Amino acid sequence: MLNRKPICGFSKTQFLFFTLVLANVVLVSSKSTIEPCSNSDSCNAMLGYTVYTELKVSEVASLFQLDPIAILTANAIDISYPDVENHILPAQLFLKIPITCSCVDGIRKSVSTHYKTRPSDTLSSIADSVYSGLVSADQIREANSISDPTVLDVGQNLVVPLPCTCFNGTDNSLPAIYLSYVVKPVDSLTAIAARYTTTITDLMNVNAMGSTSVKAGDILAVPLPACASNFPKYASDFGLIVPNGSYAISASHCVQCSCGPGSLNLYCMPASLAVSCSSMQCKNSNLMVGNYTVQQTSAGCNVTSCSYGGFVNGTIVTTLSTFLQPRCPGPQKFPPIIAPPSSVISDSIFAPSPAPQSDGVGSLTPRSSLVPVTGGSLTGLPPVSGPVGSASDACSLVNPLATFLIATLPFFSLKLIFAIL
Ligand SMILES: *[C@@H]1O[C@H](CO)[C@@H](O)[C@H](O)[C@H]1NC(C)=O
Ligand SMILES: *[C@@H]1O[C@H](CO)[C@@H](O)[C@H](O)[C@H]1NC(C)=O
Ligand SMILES: *[C@@H]1O[C@H](CO)[C@@H](O)[C@H](O)[C@H]1NC(C)=O
Ligand SMILES: *[C@@H]1O[C@H](CO)[C@@H](O)[C@H](O)[C@H]1NC(C)=O
Ligand SMILES: *[C@@H]1O[C@H](CO)[C@@H](O)[C@H](O)[C@H]1NC(C)=O
């Protein structure tokens, strides 16, 4: 029989058709959470970015005009790995990108990103592929007053407005930093809540949603529990906030601050890459930033610590403080760091969403799609199971595109049905 495997080989027309359906869905109905603002204060925020092709760490950083170290620490990737900035990240890797969120024309957005056009770029390819759906072609067109989007000069410098929210740096009165997350075709609100250990209710409140339905291409603000700093307003790193399980680098690479896994108190210490840094010793003491001494007294544990107080005029501010605690703290624990990823466990694109019972608990989904080097580049693709059966076995490892389309077919057909109704 000649046509045993029609599912594996999509014709070009079929593929174009599905692409158009997807593009249509994204363009017509995608929503993103908008936070009105009135003051000029900015905050730290995160973008959920999917690497669109194999890219060096430094290339991802330059897409956002960021310090590569900032991207690595935000994802708890080992910065002492040899030549880590030139490490090649696999396509489809999901990364958290730290950005500054400003207030522009009354709404929160990030406007610090610029993109220099290359041959064969289109506004759609820049929006959907290079910036993984965090921006739309229309938004780039508007931000740059482009009248004819079919004519893009090579080397043109485009502003890329990106979504972000601050919400006062809190979620339910606890410190939080907000991740702008682009909903993928197989995502459900339950799965997103589980992945980020939050609840459906919280996501619905934050995003002012009337129902639990989300569509591919929607951009949600996802609160990440974080450790907040209380540096003075005149410090250049004022407002530093670090999500649980990660790090940030500050004070010209001199200080590294981490958050979690135990308490959500920001812990800063000299960075491993510190080269020429101003003194990190606390006045009138022999303690350095991050050091503490404990003394058991009858009243409890007397803890004296030297902590980082912000970067002011090129100087590292240190604060010596003493406080009594009921019990002495153990040694400082750090969030685990991972080797620079070379393959992807695609827990959000290919894997089925967790069952609804897992609402808000998050023990079923891995917290991160980042994995250390394991082997061949295909090992990260789990086999597709489900209604397609044997046909998928034959295709899944050979043709990831076909696998993707098979996995998302129910989504497309649903959309079509709704479109027809
Ligand atoms: C903003 O957060 C601060 C603590 O970080 C809190 O004291 C203040 O009440 C919050 N303001 C609003 C409007 O939620
Ligand atoms: C912080 O992360 C750790 C490890 O991932 C987790 O056990 C802990 O519950 C998290 N804390 C909060 C408040 O989410
Ligand atoms: C102080 O911190 C430095 C750097 O983190 C460390 O090498 C040193 O051992 C610490 N000293 C004390 C007394 O804890
Ligand atoms: C705690 O330790 C500091 C410095 O070692 C000392 O000055 C202070 O008197 C101690 N406080 C108590 C209550 O023991
Ligand atoms: C930083 O330095 C400038 C000029 O050297 C000075 O005017 C300013 O007051 C300093 N700021 C702080 C917070 O020390």
Automatic annotation (TrEMBL):
Q: What is this protein called?
A: LysM domain containing protein
Q: Where is the LysM domain?
A: 113-160, 179-222
User: Which region is the signal sequence?
Assistant: 1-30
Under the heading InterPro entries, the entry gives: LysM, LysM_dom_sf
Under the heading Pfam families, the entry gives: LysM
Keyword match Phosphoprotein: no
Keywords assigned by UniProt, alphabetized: Signal
